[in-house]
Design goal:
With about 675 residues, this protein is α+β, with helices and mostly antiparallel strands. The chain contains 22 helices and 24 strands. Strands 16-20-21-19-18-17 form a 6-stranded mixed β-sheet.
């Protein structure tokens, strides 16, 4: 088998399982729970099987030891402790590094996992801890259909049991012994489900124990005695099954999770049995139709083709207006409606929730805080906010730098916080939200804030600013100096900071994505970093405006409304031109002055009112052309950095119009 053709699938699924384990480990540390351990075990088991099949033995060995340790915990033979949790967190960091090595063409052998493996083996081989187990427990998560089968069977005298079978350490043929156990069970009742699944047990893809969900009219003692007679069975536990978790029927129902025909027919109703079969087929079809993996290059090609189509559609609309033929206009209108729906669909293909980036941070915050002996609570909101895939792929590293900076520089040590009258646990908020045609990401801590005096002193010492600049700069402007190349206020060089690298790289990276980074800080209260990024790098709705002989596009998402203004309506406040907009004084920005364009002066002129949060600005233009779908194109390095311009677009007549970044107007 050529495993290379499955490499992409392996990498995608590995990253999903690693993320799942990270999330569940945090839950396990905070609240524990058998269901959480079970989820971690499942993901670790799947990772082991996948990596072994692909030939990545170091990954497989690490996950095998992790799986073995978890099996003892989920089986009730050992209790999870902090040492095991720390080892598992380290293992997942090493796993990420190995998967990254495989993605770059390696074999995942770039990490020495010997100490981690030894730590797992020490836990596995240590003294067992007796854990009291209640008689009514469940490790099975059943669907609504299986639950109804169990309920119907109970009405006809059956009882539901959860059976745990532990084979001897010296067993040679595990699958054969498991088959003998199932053979005995078939004589006493019906097997509803197993964990691991039947195929895994047949292929010996389990350690020494497995669980069975079983329906029988016999007593627990009779069932236990029958299984115990099988050679090389070390321990049998038969407990009454309690439906602790019932999932919705979207989950795929396999042959092993459905009770055999005799139990289904306990109601003696053939029509109901037929309905049950139909339900199984519908559920399986729903599960199979959930998602499909598509290569990103194909989506990019589709996007490029559609962008050209949008440009041609604009040209067709212009030609139809010039011809003025009703049938042509009607056809163009139908094309426009259809392409609007298609455009929405195409754009959503590239949009992904930022959750994919945010999910990596809880574990990182835990690790960093523990390393520098601080207590930090991370609060995440807005993880469902969607962003263009190309931006999501690039924004992770800058956010890592900002979060590590907040923990190391911002949040104080517990004893310092207590002396300042704060809770010893610092709060770190990570939030995302939409604002106009942009996405805003904020990282806010309740720490000591940025020491502006120290920043000023360091900046003067290193020649970043002059003495004259130091006296005229505001506190926020001084605080922004931490983004200067090579600038650092750290007194001690650590693994996290103090080498003068990081925040300047963050600023450069964000700006290369068309974004902006800013900060607000209050001494003793905390600091907030704000990253502003374009929502999408492709197609947007915009208002076309005329200034002199030039056309400009203002994104509709940032426009509140348009209005006409007389020269007499212009007022002056704080040496700025403003106008009264519904009782609020709003500043005016003249585009002809901003871009140095010559145009005639009118006594009455259109104003486009744009907003950013609660702030408003009136943009003065010569004429309003109308609304249009436009394709955003980058300006390139030659025109990079022009204030208030985020890109360009090609109009239907072939002319180029610049796209206004309304956020820069504030």
């Amino acid at each position: 088998m050529d495993v290379n053709e499955y490499l992409g699938l392996f990498l995608d699924e590995s990253q999903e399982h690693i993320q799942s384990i990270n999330t569940q480990l945090l839950k396990l540390e905070q609240s524990g729970g058998a269901d959480v351990v079970q989820e971690i075990f499942r993901s670790a088991h799947t990772l082991k099987g996948m990596s072994s099949t692909m030939g990545y033995e170091r990954v497989a060995n690490l996950t095998h030891e992790m799986e073995s340790a978890l099996d003892l915990v989920r089986g009730g033979k050992k209790e999870s402790n902090q040492l095991l949790l720390d080892t598992m967190f380290i293992a997942m960091e090493q796993m990420e590094d190995m998967i990254a090595d495989i993605e770059s063409g390696g074999q995942g052998a770039n990490v020495d996992v010997s100490e981690t493996v030894a730590a797992f083996q020490s836990f596995i081989g240590g003294k067992e801890v007796a854990v009291e187990k209640t008689s009514e427990t469940s490790t099975f998560e059943i669907d609504l259909y299986t639950n109804s089968v169990i309920e119907q069977a109970k009405q006809t005298g059956f009882e539901a049991y959860q059976i745990t079978v532990k084979l001897s350490d010296a067993v040679v043929l595990k699958a054969a012994r498991a088959y003998m156990v199932f053979d005995r069970l078939q004589e006493l009742g019906e097997v509803v489900s197993t964990h691991p699944e039947t195929e895994e047990i047949e292929q010996e893809q389990f350690d020494l124990s497995f669980d069975v969900l079983f329906l029988s009219q016999e007593t627990a003692e009779v069932i236990e005695h029958a299984i115990a007679q099988v050679s090389e069975v070390e321990r049998v536990e038969v407990n009454t099954f309690t439906e602790t978790a019932v999932s919705e029927p979207e989950v795929a129902v396999t042959a092993e999770t459905i009770a055999p025909e005799p139990v289904v027919q306990a109601t003696s109703d053939k029509e109901e049995a037929k309905d049950t079969k139909d339900t199984k087929e519908q559920v399986a079809a729903q599960a199979q139709a959930k998602t499909i993996r598509v290569n990103l290059e194909r989506i990019d090609r589709l996007m490029n083709l559609f962008e050209e189509f949008i440009i041609d559609r604009g040209r067709l609309e212009r030609l139809a207006d010039e011809v003025g033929q009703p049938e042509l206009n009607e056809t163009v209108e139908k094309i426009k409606r259809g392409t609007n729906e298609l455009q929405s669909l195409v754009l959503t293909l590239r949009m992904m929730p930022i959750e994919q980036v945010f999910n990596r941070f809880p574990r990182m915050v835990r690790s960093v805080a523990k390393e520098i002996h601080k207590k930090v609570q991370l609060d995440i909101s807005g993880a469902e906010t969607e962003l263009d895939r190309t931006v999501i792929d690039e924004i992770g590293d800058p956010l890592v730098h900002l979060i590590r900076n907040a923990i190391d520089h911002g949040i104080e040590r517990p004893e310092v916080r207590l002396q300042a009258g704060k809770p010893e646990q610092g709060m770190l908020a990570l939030r995302a939200y939409h604002g106009g045609n942009r996405v805003f990401i904020e990282i806010e801590d309740d720490g000591a804030g940025i020491n502006v005096d120290k920043v000023r002193s360091k900046a003067l010492e290193r020649g970043v600013i002059t003495d004259e600049e130091a006296t005229t700069m505001s506190e926020n402007e001084l605080a922004m100096l931490i983004f200067a190349p090579g600038f650092s206020t750290a007194d001690v060089v650590t693994d996290l900071s103090g080498r003068g690298v990081g925040l300047d790289v963050v600023k450069n990276k964000i700006e290369s994505l068309g974004g902006v980074v800013s900060l607000e800080t209050v001494g003793g209260q905390g600091t907030k970093f704000q990253v502003s990024l374009p929502l999408t790098l492709s197609i947007i709705s915009a208002m076309l405006v005329q200034v002199g002989e030039e056309s400009y596009a203002i994104p509709l998402t940032s426009i509140l409304e348009t209005t006409l203004l007389d020269e007499a309506d212009i007022l002056t406040a704080h040496r700025e031109r403003v106008f009264d907009f519904r009782g609020q004084l709003v500043p005016l920005v003249y585009m002809k002055e901003m871009f140095g364009i010559e145009s005639e002066t009118k006594s009455q002129f259109p104003v486009v009112v744009v907003r950013k949060g609660n702030k408003l600005v009136g943009v003065v233009v010569n004429d309003l052309i109308g609304q249009q779908e436009i394709v955003m194109k980058p300006l390139g390095t030659y025109l990079e950095g022009i204030p208030a311009i985020s890109g360009a677009t090609i109009l239907g007549d072939g002319r180029v119009a610049l796209i206004v970044d309304s956020n820069d107007l504030f």
